[in-house]
Structures are given as C-alpha cells and as structure tokens.
Design brief:
The complex is a heterodimer of chains A (114) and B (109).
Chain A: E1 5-7, E2 10-13, E3 19-24, E4 31-37, E5 44-50, E6 53-57, E7 64-68, E8 74-78, E9 87-94, E10 104-105, E11 109-113
Chain B: E1 4-6, E2 11-14, E3 19-25, E4 32-38, E5 45-50, E6 55-57, E7 60-65, E8 70-75, E9 84-91, E10 97-99, E11 103-108
Parallel strand pairs in B: 2-11
Antiparallel strand pairs in B: 1-3, 3-8, 4-5, 4-9, 6-7, 7-8, 9-10, 9-11
The chains are: A mainly beta (114), B mainly beta (109).
C-alpha cells in the first residue's frame, strides 16, 4: 500500500522562476493538503484540495496556486519565486469524508532558491 | 500571539529520564489534537492523537485540557531513538493542521 509520494525530492531554482511540485495521496485518500516548512519552523498550511477544488487556504499569497486531478493527485505551483520561498514543501493526504482524521505526510520536496 | 506555542528547546536528557513537553493553543474552536515527531530533514510522522481523557501508548502519555487550552506529552524511560523534534498540532477542522514550532529532544547515553 503506497503512502504519500512527492516529486521531485530536491529542486534548485532562481529568483523569478516558476516551479511545480507534485503529490500522489495515500491509497484511499481523497484530500490533499500542502504545507511549507522553513528551516527551524513548524510546517505552515498553504491550502487543501478536495473534490478537485480548493477547500481551505492559509495565509499565503496568490503566487501559490494548486490543482487536484480526478485521480486525487495534486500539484502545487509557485510563481515569481523569492529567496524566502526556500523551504521543505510537504504534501499530506487524508480521507475528507471522515472528518478530522490525522494526516499522512510525504517525504517532501526540498526547494532551494538561488 | 502564535496559534500554537510550545516550549522552546532543545531538551537535553540522559537515557532513562522522563521528559515532559507543554503546548498551548489559542483557538478554542480547535477540534482535534495530535503530537507528531519529526526526525532531522524528514517528514513529520504521527506519534499519537490527544484526547481529553488522556491517552497512553507505551512510554508515551498525552493529555489535553480544553478549559485551559493546554496539551502535554510525557515520555518515560527515554531512549536514544527518541531524539527528534516533537510537534504539537491542532486541527482547525477539515484536517487543516496548525503546527507549533516544535521542541527538539536530545537523548544522550
């Protein structure tokens, strides 16, 4: 039973570029959430996708956008990258129909902005 | 005020020690509560859920006090393998999690 998978594992970009990160949820899960974890901080909620729509959003600018596909996989897009976007980006999945269940995290994508 | 606040670390303890982590949260509408563990440069992993009645999983005991909006984690008989960062996590609903900054635990021989 595959857990949450993310790609790529590492990525290096320069300021102003755009990036797309990908996530496949754990089998049986239909809800995907994205988090940003800066060095020395706890993860911060970016947004959540359920039924191919953004259901919840944290305090992140519009440069951060996403998408969920019919197979429940998801993408996180970040435009006009800033140095401060360097972080570990975590994807988590859960069963949206079962309320407040704990989330299962992928290994993350480590994004470095030069 | 941050939504979830934890003890600043790190905590340095010898093997066999008992260590307690404290956490407070500000949103009284928070629905569920967890402790996650995160190893260096790895993803967070669920350690245990936290209930008002208190719950125990082996050497780990978690407590929740909704009235004072306080969560705790007690680790007894610390092992070297317990060294990690412990994250206090609050669910605001729809499984959207708010994390504390984390408290690092270092267990030494």
């Amino acid at each position: 039973d595959a857990g949450v998978t993310q790609s790529p594992t590492h990525l290096i970009k320069t300021r102003g570029q755009q990036v797309t990160l990908r996530c496949s949820p754990k089998s049986g899960h239909d809800t995907v959430s994205w988090y940003q974890q800066a060095l020395g901080q706890g993860p911060q909620f970016i947004f959540q996708y359920y039924e191919e729509e953004e259901r919840q959003r944290g305090n992140f600018p519009d440069r951060f956008s996403g998408h969920q596909f019919p197979n429940y996989s998801s993408e996180l897009n970040v435009n006009a990258l800033l140095l401060g976007d360097s972080a570990l980006y975590l994807c988590a999945s859960s069963d949206g129909g079962r309320g407040n269940q704990p989330q299962h995290f992928g290994d993350g994508t480590r994004l470095s902005i030069l | 005020r941050k939504e979830v606040e934890q003890d600043p670390g790190p905590f340095n303890v010898p093997e066999g020690a008992t260590v307690a982590f404290n956490c407070t949260y500000s949103n009284s509408a928070s629905q569920s509560f967890f402790w996650y563990r995160q190893d260096c440069r790895k993803e967070p992993k669920l350690l245990m859920s936290v209930y008002s009645s208190g719950n125990e999983d082996g050497r780990f005991t978690a407590q929740l006090n909704r009235a004072s909006q306080y969560i705790s984690l007690l680790i007894r008989d610390s092992k070297l393998s317990d060294s990690a960062t412990y994250l206090c996590v609050v669910n605001r609903g729809y499984s959207t999690l708010t994390f504390g900054k984390g408290t690092m635990l270092l267990v030494s021989p």
